[in-house]
């Protein structure tokens, strides 16, 4: 069986072009996700401070209090919080005070 040039093998084959399209789509998707994450983080500190909430869990969390420009520790019940909710004082300070 004779091989045809330009079909099925090499850098210009259909598989290579498909792979490049997938790679480009992955980069674009990753970039969009990063932009959404950055936009989400920018607004966390502007949200009203999270409250304990109606759930019965007991998580030690941190929130930013705009009026005093400080991070405050509180017990979070596990539901109905705002985005102004941080796992650690360090995260709160990094997002809201630096």
UniProtKB/TrEMBL annotation:
Family under the similarity heading: Belongs to the venom Kunitz-type family. 01 (intermediate) subfamily.
InterPro entries: Kunitz_BPTI (IPR002223), Kunitz_BPTI_sf (IPR036880), Prtase_inh_Kunz-CS (IPR020901)
PROSITE patterns (alphabetical): BPTI_KUNITZ_1 (PS00280), BPTI_KUNITZ_2 (PS50279)
Signal peptide: 1-39
Gene Ontology MF term list: serine-type endopeptidase inhibitor activity
Family matches, as SUPFAM superfamilies: BPTI-like (SSF57362)
Keyword NAD among UniProt keywords: no
Keyword Magnesium carried by entry: no
Domain BPTI/Kunitz inhibitor: 45-96
Keywords: Disulfide bond, Protease inhibitor, Serine protease inhibitor, Signal
Protein name: BPTI/Kunitz inhibitor domain-containing protein
Function, as annotated: Serine protease inhibitor that inhibits trypsin at a molar ratio of 1:1.
């Amino acid at each position: 069986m004779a091989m045809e040039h330009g079909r099925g093998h090499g850098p210009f084959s259909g598989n290579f072009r498909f792979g490049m399209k997938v790679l480009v789509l992955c980069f674009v998707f990753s970039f969009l996700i990063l932009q959404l994450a950055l936009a989400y983080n920018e607004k966390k500190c502007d949200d009203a401070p999270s409250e304990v909430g109606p759930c019965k869990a007991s998580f030690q969390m941190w929130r930013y209090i705009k009026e005093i420009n400080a991070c405050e520790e509180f017990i979070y019940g596990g539901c109905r919080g705002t985005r102004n909710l941080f796992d650690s004082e360090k995260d709160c300070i990094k997002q809201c005070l630096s």
